[in-house]
């Protein structure tokens, strides 16, 4: 491969949120020569940001600002990635860490775009950044001379509080999100980092057949995901069931080539039961009976759900089955769980002041759940004879508090006013970069927005003009430094304005 020519075009990074102020992160690489190389990542608190976990002492507890994100980049000259990948090493960036310091994102050494027309660079990004397997991320290529497309071997943390919400790009992304065969240009090249694991949370409630009263209490005391081996909580006995056909994986390989989890090399099946007590809000129940010393979670009256994990705590798991179209769980034995609970009856006539019956129920998580990039809430229903489990799909972004500033408009003048309102919103929350104006009314004709106040918007910010009736737009004039994805619109639809 010929030597790489360099121009004064700097590679810069900026992370944005495409739809809202806290969702998947987008990192931009800018070949703009004028400004100095700069970095910014828009995240909120750790429970609303990209990297989510609940362990205050965890290596990833402060999120992406603590860990940074990593980039691999391959220069292939005039060749495409498809034709050159097998014989190309990460010769442009090798696990380049983009770090946050003094309110700025930065990396060294600075890299420059090749100035030969038609030369190409392919980029692969992920977060949290890792140089060791401490965070469960083991990168291939292992050296700067290893040829071929990169992969990630991801391993679940031993402690559930330290689980990592892994995000990454993939080579199939297109349009503004394309990261493969990128050539020198004046607009930005976007990195959209996507969730690649599946997220789970758990709740429990009482069935109508088992109603709690002032004397009878149902208390959840533990929970675990079963492995292939039969062990108890100390890994020495046989009180915990085994799931020989388990698809609960402790490690697997992520393929940047298509954004899926590989079947080759084979994923590693978890052997020991994966105990969840450490992240459950277990508490003393001596207020029920003074001599009942087991910590647990009391279930209220039938129909009322109660969380079984600590606030803002989730499990981030490797999907049991994955393909370009995620499939998740396909059999009852794929992922099985156990829930431990006590039924305690207060009885002053007894020496202990109560009687207690302990039970352990084994349930299969439902088919079709635990798909890549999807979030689920599983609810255990505890009854007289059995425990059942149901699942609901959650919007991963909704759980993290997405806020999309919006305004309404009925004509050109009110669109200009709405843009000014959103400009103020941008000034109040710099983490936001997607805004919506809901436009109603009749024909708009030629729209002139050149006078709109846009001083707070930054490069990459988008304003969606959402027309709910045929707008009859024949042309559009924008403020300096803005562009539109279309300039005419005769039917119901959207026009996206983007700040260069």
UniProtKB/TrEMBL annotation:
Gene3D superfamilies given in the database record: Fimbrillin-like
Keyword presence, Signal: yes
Name of the protein this chain belongs to: Fimbrillin family protein
InterPro entries: Mfa-like_1_N
Secretion signal, residue range per the UniProt entry: 1-24
Keywords (A to Z) from UniProt: Signal
Native species: Bacteroides thetaiotaomicron
UniProt keyword annotation of Signal present: yes
High-level lineage: Bacteria, Pseudomonadati, Bacteroidota, Bacteroidia, Bacteroidales
